[in-house]
């Protein structure tokens, strides 16, 4: 209702709903309490929420809106390897990164496991905990975990065979498994939502996700769960997180074009933030108050035309 009260029409459309002179839009009718469709005029601004990377590869829809001088923000998914390299080259942000090797190879894997007893392999184009492997070196062998399976007592050669069977991506990250701080026996990390407002990116809300012992990710669909932010807030340096978000948002916008909102997965080691990744299409937060603030900031972005063209 907030957008409607300000005279703003927000609607959703798919690639199949783009026509030469109009779009087929889906909008929520608050009086009928349901989604409706209708032919709509072209928007002033497009937020790219395409759910699959394959759809983004097609250049035709970008060219279509470019010819009509309609700006698009959050133009594409982030690539984990690209983002890590950007952060690694930043004088402030590099100090908040876990030890990471970009690109998968048997030599790189062996070297990282000699340095760290446990590591993650992350697909650079993975999301929501998919394309992730957890490896522990123990008892003269290796343990391999995926979000749904576990393989014990592997030799290094058998470990490689299993990873190749899972088609591990060549551009994956090999990253130390940070021994994250815990709360009540549960390992936790933060989902930090950031929006552009007031000429900079700032924190809109923070969700906390935790995992039971033995789980390799804190993503709720893969077995993680929500804990209240109040339970860990006293240990968080908010000004430090705000600085991380502001630097990251500016850096990402200069690389990917204007970013209206993004999220970051941040863990803590001895109360110091560790940046795990950034996401260009933040999840729907379980915390309703975060979602409400998020929607308001996105509407402000539309209403005040704050999208920057200098990125």
Q: How much helix, percentage-wise, in residues? A: 25-40%
Into how many domains do the coordinates divide?
3
Backbone structural class:
alpha+beta
- Under CATH, the homologous superfamily of the largest domain reads ATP-grasp fold, B domain
Task: Report the CATH C-level class of the largest domain.
Answer: Alpha Beta
C-alpha-based Rg, rounded: 21 Å
Count of DSSP H/I helices: 8
Q: Which second-level CATH architecture of the largest domain applies?
A: 2-Layer Sandwich
Q: Sketch the topology as an H/E string, one letter per element.
A: HEEEHHEHEHEEEEHEEEEEHEEH
Under CATH, the topology of the largest domain is which? D-amino Acid Aminotransferase, Chain A, domain 1
The main pleated sheet reads as: 6 strands, antiparallel
Categorize the overall geometry: globular
Name the strands of the widest sheet in spatial order: 5-10-6-7-8-9
The proportion of residues in beta strands is: 25-35%
Q: How far apart lie the N and C ends?
A: 32 Å
Summarize the structure.
With 311 residues, the protein is an alpha+beta fold.
